[in-house]
Design brief:
109 residues; mainly beta; Rieske Iron-sulfur Protein; six-stranded antiparallel sheet; three-stranded antiparallel sheet; globular; Rieske_2Fe-2S; dioxygenase; 3-phenylpropionate/trans-cinnamate dioxygenase ferredoxin subunit
C-alpha cells in the first residue's frame, strides 16, 4: 500500500488532534507546537476511547477518559492506567497534503 491523503495541513489546528480514517484504520493526527505533524493510533489501549478527543500537551496526547498520555513520537504510554503502546505512522507532507500509509508503522522502540 502507498501513502494516502489523510487531510490537509491547513485542516490541522496546532496542539489539537484530528481523527482520520484510512482504509478502516483510525488515527489521531496532530500538528504540535513545533510545527511537526504526527500520526498515532486513535484508540486508547486502556479502553476503547478515541484519543483524538483528548488533549495535546507538548509531544503527548492524553486520553480524556482515564488520563493516560501517549508519546506522539513513540506511541508509548507515559503514565498509567495504559501500559500498551499505540501504533505510530510515518507522515509525509506534499504541499498542503498530509500523507500517511496505514499499513506501515514505525518501529520506535
Amino acid at each position: 500500500m502507498t501513502a494516502q491523503r489523510a487531510c490537509g495541513l491547513s485542516d490541522l489546528v496546532q496542539d489539537e488532534a484530528r481523527r482520520v480514517e484510512i482504509d478502516g484504520v483510525p488515527m489521531a493526527v496532530v500538528l504540535d507546537s513545533n510545527g511537526e505533524v504526527h500520526a498515532i493510533g486513535d484508540t486508547c489501549t486502556h479502553g476503547d476511547i478515541s484519543l483524538s478527543e483528548g488533549f495535546v500537551d507538548g509531544d503527548s496526547l492524553e486520553c480524556w477518559a482515564h488520563g493516560s498520555a501517549f508519546s506522539l513520537r513513540t506511541g508509548k504510554p507515559l503514565n498509567l492506567p495504559a501500559y500498551e503502546p499505540v501504533p505510530v505512522y510515518a507522515v509525509t507532507l506534499d504541499g498542503d497534503d498530509v500523507l500517511i500509509d496505514p499499513s506501515v508503522t514505525l518501529d520506535v522502540n
